[in-house]
Amino acid sequence: MSYTVTQQTQEIGIRMALGAQQRNIYGLIVLRGMALVGIGVATGLVASLAMTRLLAVFLFGVTPRDPATLASVILLFAAVAAIACWIPARRASQVDPLVALRHE
């Protein structure tokens, strides 16, 4: 996310110069990042449910389709990803539009 936000510095500067608020920039960046997280979580959940026989060999004391375990792992990954999206969004929302427009 940090790399993507750095690449979009001019776009963010133009948006801020045209009147976008900091919360709009936060929303834009976090929404894009969390959309990717949602796709990854859905793909991983489908893959883990499809491979339950293989996973059963590696799990001790937990069934491969344990809803509490799956939910806790999904929430943990989503929380880490939200933080990973929030930090670059915070940095991008504090950029001066003139500096962002001059950035190459």
Give the oligomeric state. Answer: single chain
Order of helices and strands: HHHHHH
Largest sheet: none
Beta-strand content bin: under 5%
Helix content percent band: over 70%
Question: Quick one: how many beta strands?
Answer: 0
Contiguous low-pLDDT stretches (5 residues minimum) are: none
Chain-averaged pLDDT: 86
Instruction: Please count the helical segments.
Output: 6
What structural class do helix, strand and pairing data support?
mainly alpha
How many domains, in number, for the residues? 1
**Termini separation (Å)?**
18 Å
Kindly provide the radius of gyration, computed on alpha-carbon positions and rounded to a whole number of angstroms: 19 Å
Estimate the global geometry from the Cα principal axes.
elongated
